[in-house]
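Model it.
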Amino acid sequence: MKRLLIIGIGAGDPDHLTLQAVKAIAATDVFFIVDKGEVKHDLVQLRLDLIAEHGRPPYRIAEARDPDRDRTAPAYAAAVDDWRARRARACEALIRDELGDGRTGAFLVWGDPGVYDSTLAIVEDILARGNVAFDYEVIPGVSSVAALTARHRTSLTRVGRPVHLTTGRRLAEQGPTADDVVIMLDAHCSFTGLDDHHIHWGAYLGTPDEILISGPVSEVGERIREVRAEARARKGWIMDTYLLRRLEE
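Modeled.
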């Protein structure tokens, strides 16, 4: 039986790697890299650096190109489903063609594989199709949410209050649905106008390009918009996370 490891590698700081993840990398025979292209090459390079430091030779690296996704399609869910299906086929081919029976392969996943990442769903899709058989294990990692609250020296939760984890798209559609809301990836700065909230915002968490801004939305909202736009233009991509907390009356 082929064995697959889904390894959470943290939000960007090499020191986010857990001892369990280090052992998993050392036990891997083939590392699967899904390349997003030149714009995000530094995301691939971090994975390669971690493999070089913690991998145990002889190991191999097998790469596939990440399918393009239509981010302008009005039917957002359908566009995501189409992209995920094409990505699943690319990953299936890697596992089928590059991983021998009795060997261990691994995907290195940003943050934690269970928090807003498609890898686990893709793995289940591959198994459901029945074209390739394997067993798999999930190694948790430091999520961008954990990195964000640590860097801002604040708690994710408050006593007796729920936390809502959602996306910028949903925030724009529904507004805050709890006093404490964590937003993953918000291209449109959907916090705009929520002046009764405090925001802890972070981008490129754990990397040398990390940016942190915190304060009442009414005071720092416009600054975040400007800094985010400049950073994205400079690097060609941005991954940001933020915690919105309703101000006490």
